[in-house]
Amino acid sequence: MADVFSGGKQSGPTEAELKKLHAKIGRLAVENDFLSEGFKR
Q1: Phi-psi category of 13—alpha, beta or left, where left has phi over 0 and alpha has psi -120 to 50?
Q2: What's the pLDDT at 6?
Q3: Which one of 7, 25, 29, 40 is at 20 to 30 Å from 18 when CA atoms are compared?
Q4: Residues with Cβ < 8 Å from 21, sequence gap 6 or more?
Q5: Tens of pLDDT along 1-41?
Q6: How far apart, in Å, are the Cα atoms of 9 and each of 2, 3, 5, 13, 18?
Q7: In this predicted structure, what is the pLDDT of residue 22?
Q8: pLDDT for residue 26
Q9: Rounded distance, CA 21 to CA 19, Å?
């Protein structure tokens, strides 16, 4: 917790983690679109 407030270097997600997260976001978006169409009927 001290690292958050000490102003130290903040490490972000790696390139592999970003690709994995983008794939998951895309999959969830497709699932949401599919389910929203099903509920409209």
Answers
A1: beta
A2: 66
A3: 7
A4: 13
A5: 566 666 666 678 899 999 999 999 999 999 999 999 887 76
A6: 12, 9, 11, 13, 19
A7: 97
A8: 97
A9: 5
